[in-house]
Amino acid sequence: MSHTAHIPSHRKPRQSASKTALRAGVAGGVLSTIAVAGAAGPAQAEPVTRTVEMPTITAGLSTSVAASAQATQAVALDLETQAHEDAEAATAAKTAKKAKAEAVRKAEAKKKAEAAAKAKAEAAERASRTAERTTLSASTESSTTSAPVSSNATGSAASVIAFAQSHVGDAYVSGGTGPNSWDCSGLVQAAFRTVGVELPRVSQSQSTAGTQVSLDNLQPGDILYWGGAGSAYHVGIYVGDGQFVGAQNSSTGVVQKSLDYDPPSGAVRVL
Length: 271
Prior knowledge:
The protein is an alpha+beta fold. Helices cover 41% and strands 18% of the residues. It is built from 4 helices and 11 strands, in the order E-E-E-H-H-E-E-H-H-E-E-E-E-E-E.
């Protein structure tokens, strides 16, 4: 035993300090308990205990977090969609540009090919006309019926005949009006134009342009026609001595022939 055990204590009884314990839970609305020990009586007094329910904060927090996550996901989805659309638009624009360039290239190639084909065709046509004219000239020189003959025509008739005979050997071209290729009515119109007479352009109209005359009473400078008056399909110029000059067809060109070679249907006199 201690030698101080019998000495009574002179200190006043210690009053218990207030004790507070806080227990807080954050999941599922856990109750928080605060224990308060009061010192209102002697040291041996039982502590006073009070229970207080703390508010739950997890519900609102989880909702905010969920909403924020959902908004972030929506923004990310929108960005991904926009990026995909931008990529598709860029691809489409690139494809369209390439297709346009290809179309332009093909159009230019087609244009060049057409120009080359046209030039080739024109060259072939010129060569054909030259060969045909050479053949016609040789045939004319060797044929007594094709050689120009003198006539008793005078004045305007003589000028018309001289013009027509100067183009014997020229090529026949449908719609041709000279100076080196003709169709039948084109040659007749040009011959009469040299003396100031303006005839209609086509055979049908030329066959009624003057006074109808009998084939037995022809004079140099009369217009001969084949077919009906007003519906003629061919015309020529009577040059005298039973011969005429006319642009016959693509095989013969402009020739001087006997009326027996191709007897006309009728004649009109303009001069």
